[in-house]
């Protein structure tokens, strides 16, 4: 399985700050927002990642990640000249996905929860072994803003509706999607919505129509933020800060995950910490390398 992370778009909901820099490179507490979705892929041992980026952001992603060598990964990117909907990212990434299953992530979605990696591993295994699509639902108070899942009395999925005026439930489909090898072809077959966009909901509904969609609800033990507005961006940053200060452990620390996965050595980790030695982030990496953080 490969991971595709959508980090393009104009970030209009975060204007005026995003007139200068792409929102996914903004600091969410103590690290760029892009670190958080990337860390999710890494947590389930996905080493090949493709970013879908804006043309003007290419030098920045190259500067931050190059092609993933420092993390023991293979990172590449594809240019999205003009946003045409979330589903377009899969089409653009086709040359890299090839005939693989894919974890598709939205770059401004932040996740945290007990056993989250185990939940993701289970979804990954389900899709790789049985095919289909596996997505997640989360209870929201403002369902008009999201793709909303409708269930019957037995909990079976009946429909998914994008930004409904009259929501049929309060469960939003969050920005983390596991798809089998058919995802790109399905993305190519869907038509633009009334908003003129290729909706990810259209892909999910096609899998539902085929009887190949699974939806798992994330309960109260999980946190999810769609950090695309000023308020949600601030809330996500405050959440990360609180957890890290309480536990002394970092969320979304990509160097730590690469080290724990065995993708980089202790010496390589210390080398990554060197230019950051005056920061709390650098000190954290040094402590990790010296075995002071278990």
Automatic annotation (TrEMBL):
Look up the record and name the cofactor or cofactors this protein needs: Mg(2+)
Give the residue spans that cross the bilayer: none
Q: Name one GO molecular function term.
A: metal ion binding
- Keyword Transferase part of the UniProt annotation: yes
Q: Which SUPFAM superfamilies match?
A: Nucleotide-diphospho-sugar transferases
CDD domains registered for this protein in UniProt: G1P_TT_short (cd02538)
The chain's coiled-coil residues are none
Its UniProt entry gives the catalysed reaction(s) as: dTTP + alpha-D-glucose 1-phosphate + H(+) = dTDP-alpha-D-glucose + diphosphate
Role summary: Catalyzes the formation of dTDP-glucose, from dTTP and glucose 1-phosphate, as well as its pyrophosphorolysis.
Q: Report the family membership.
A: Belongs to the glucose-1-phosphate thymidylyltransferase family.
Name recorded for this polypeptide: Glucose-1-phosphate thymidylyltransferase
């Amino acid at each position: 399985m490969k991971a595709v992370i959508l980090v393009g778009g104009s970030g209009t909901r975060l204007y005026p700050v995003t007139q200068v820099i792409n929102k996914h490179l903004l600091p969410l507490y103590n690290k760029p927002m892009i670190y958080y979705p990337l860390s999710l892929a890494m947590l389930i041992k996905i080493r090949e990642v493709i970013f879908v980026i804006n043309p003007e952001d290419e030098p920045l992603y190259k500067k931050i990640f190059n092609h993933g060598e420092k993390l023991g990964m293979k990172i590449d990117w594809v240019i999205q000249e003009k946003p045409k909907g979330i589903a377009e990212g899969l089409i653009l990434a086709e040359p890299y996905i090839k005939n693989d299953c894919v974890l598709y992530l939205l770059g401004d979605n932040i996740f945290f929860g007990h056993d989250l990696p185990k939940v993701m591993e289970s979804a990954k295994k389900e899709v790789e072994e049985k095919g289909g699509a596996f997505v997640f639902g989360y209870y929201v108070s403002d369902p008009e803003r999201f793709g909303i899942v409708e269930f019957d009395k037995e909990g079976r999925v009946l429909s998914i509706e994008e930004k409904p005026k009259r929501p049929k439930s309060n469960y939003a489909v969050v920005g983390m999607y596991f798809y089998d090898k058919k995802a790109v072809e399905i993305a190519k077959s869907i038509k633009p919505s009334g908003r003129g966009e290729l909706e990810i909901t259209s892909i999910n509904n096609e899998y539902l129509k085929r009887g190949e969609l699974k939806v798992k609800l994330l309960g109260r033990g999980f946190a999810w933020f769609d950090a695309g507005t000023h308020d949600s961006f601030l809330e996500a940053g405050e959440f990360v800060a609180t957890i890290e200060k309480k536990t002394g452990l970092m969320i979304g620390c990509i160097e730590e995950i690469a080290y724990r996965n065995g993708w980089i050595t202790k010496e390589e980790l210390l080398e990554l910490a060197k230019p950051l030695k005056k920061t709390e982030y650098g000190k954290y990496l040094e402590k990790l390398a010296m075995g002071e953080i278990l």
